[in-house]
Design goal:
This protein has about 425 residues and is an alpha+beta fold. The protein is about 35% helix and about 20% strand. Strand 12, helix 12 and strand 13 form a beta-alpha-beta unit. Helix 5 packs parallel to helix 9. It is elongated, with a radius of gyration of 28 Å. The structure holds histidyl-adenosine monophosphate.
Length: about 425
């Protein structure tokens, strides 16, 4: 056994072997397939951006005072001394790519999705990793409250297709810049007499980004914040109308949600609608919101945008918590056993026919004993076996063994394609 170990806060996804159930690759592939299908059904197109970017992108996008930038960046210098980092999230990268590649000229609305790893130097704990994976979408160029509701509906639909239960949506508005300015004044006024009772983290945020105090996990902060003024009472007319319309639409879509005026989110680019998806007693599985100001922060035009991202680890783990024996659909395997030298060419010919029909096919090149081949086939998850012995070669036939039913029958070679049609796929 090697002494080389995987870095802290990361994990392997394996096709088989001893590992936790959520690390099975078949589950990941299945969830990713549903993500892609749902994205296509909502007419979103895939975008792929690099795993590392200039650190400045996230300083500006996510915000210099956010936890992600101050505490969790996987930063490094390249050989030329340029400051880089592994991407902690996808929204800033997508917006950078969108502007840099002049995609704006191509059409009026832009709907992107991505699936890939993100990196945050967090304290590893259950459901929190240093490399995690997000399925995210970014809907750029549309400012309507309908597009916010449709984005929330999209994420809800994805969870429904996966089969997750007891999902709760929490919704808030952090308003436009004007609303936030008014709210900041009210919040600071309320917090000032409590300043010395706040946690050190929150005291630091008091100056730099007081809204984030609402998000504090510290019990004493939470108690203070409980009675703080609500941002919803400080929304500008247009932000308030926008929020009310989103709520009405979600009701009409029958999406269960609650308004939680303490949601501010850990990334600074949000404006107006913000939301989180939770499953009772668990961490947030997905989140997002509107970020109309991000394009201009990157020196682009003033562009509205909304999006979400969901952590795939959490989705898969919760699915298994809710349905312990859940199995992702697996492709069955055809196992071909040439028992003598002369049968090997025939095995290859049969395999090339079955592979053309997308049947996963394995040839056992080192036949010793039939019992041994059956054991190997079962370990690999094969459902059917083709046996080519001396008799079969002579008669131009093959034996088809159903490994589940333990039945075996001889067929003429010409019947191979028909047999494939009848096999469990
Ligand atoms: P976020 O809330 O920072 O938002 O992350 C989205 C989701 O990624 C979380 O809800 C959680 O499921 C998962 N996640 C985050 N950090 C970790 C971690 N350390 N380990 C496991 N899972 C994690 C964003 O990243 C925004 N870019 C979302 C967005 C897209 N907003 C608009 N467009």
């Amino acid at each position: 056994m090697t002494s080389l170990k995987i870095p802290k806060g990361t994990f392997d996804v394996l096709p088989y072997g001893e590992r936790e159930a959520w690390q099975q690759v078949s589950l990941w592939q299945w969830v990713e397939k549903i993500a892609r299908e749902t994205a296509e059904d909502f007419s979103f197109l895939e975008i792929r951006t690099p795993i590392y970017e200039k650190i400045e992108l996230f300083d500006r996008g996510v915000g210099e005072t956010s936890d992600i930038v101050t505490k969790e960046m996987f930063g490094f210098e390249d050989k030329a001394g340029r400051k880089m980092c592994l991407r902690p999230e996808g929204t800033s990268s997508v917006m950078r790519s969108f502007l840099e590649n002049h995609l704006l000229q191509e059409r009026q609305v832009h709907k992107f999705f991505y699936i890939g790893p993100m990196f945050r130097y967090e304290r590893p704990q259950s459901g929190r990793y240093r490399q995690h994976h997000q399925f995210g979408v970014e809907y750029i160029g549309e400012s309507s409250p309908e597009s916010d509701a449709e984005t929330i509906l999209f994420l809800h639909e994805f969870y429904m297709r996966i089969g997750l239960k007891n999902i709760r949506v929490e919704l808030n508005s952090v308003g436009d810049l004007q609303s936030r300015k008014a709210y900041k004044t009210a919040l600071l006024k309320y917090l000032t007499p409590h300043f010395h009772s706040l946690s050190t983290d929150s005291q630091e945020r008091f100056e730099k980004n007081p809204l984030r105090i609402l998000d504090s996990k510290d019990p004493e902060d939470k108690e203070i914040v409980e009675k703080a003024p609500s941002i919803l009472d400080h929304l500008s007319e247009s932000s308030r109308k926008h929020f009310e319309r989103v709520c009405d639409l979600l009701k009409s879509f029958n999406i269960p949600f609650v308004v939680n005026d303490k949601i501010v989110r850990g990334l600074d680019y949000y404006q107006k609608t913000v939301f989180e998806f939770l499953i009772d007693g668990s961490k947030t599985i997905g989140a997002g919101g509107r970020y109309d100001g991000l394009s201009s922060l990157f020196n682009g035009p003033d562009l509205p945008a909304v999006g979400f991202a969901t952590g795939l680890e959490r989705v898969i783990q919760l699915l298994l918590e809710q349905q312990e024996s859940f199995q992702a659909p697996k492709k069955s395997l055809l196992y071909i056993v040439p028992m003598i030298e002369e049968a090997k060419k025939i095995a290859m010919d049969l395999a090339s026919i079955s592979r053309k029909t997308h049947t996963s096919t394995h040839i056992d090149w080192s036949f010793k004993k039939m019992q041994n081949s059956i054991q190997k086939a079962e370990k690999m998850g094969a459902s059917s076996m083709i046996i080519l012995g001396e008799d079969e070669v002579k008669k131009r036939s093959f034996q088809l063994k159903d490994l589940k039913k333990r039945e075996q029958k001889e067929h003429p070679m010409a019947a191979f394609e028909n047999c494939l049609l009848g096999m469990e796929k």
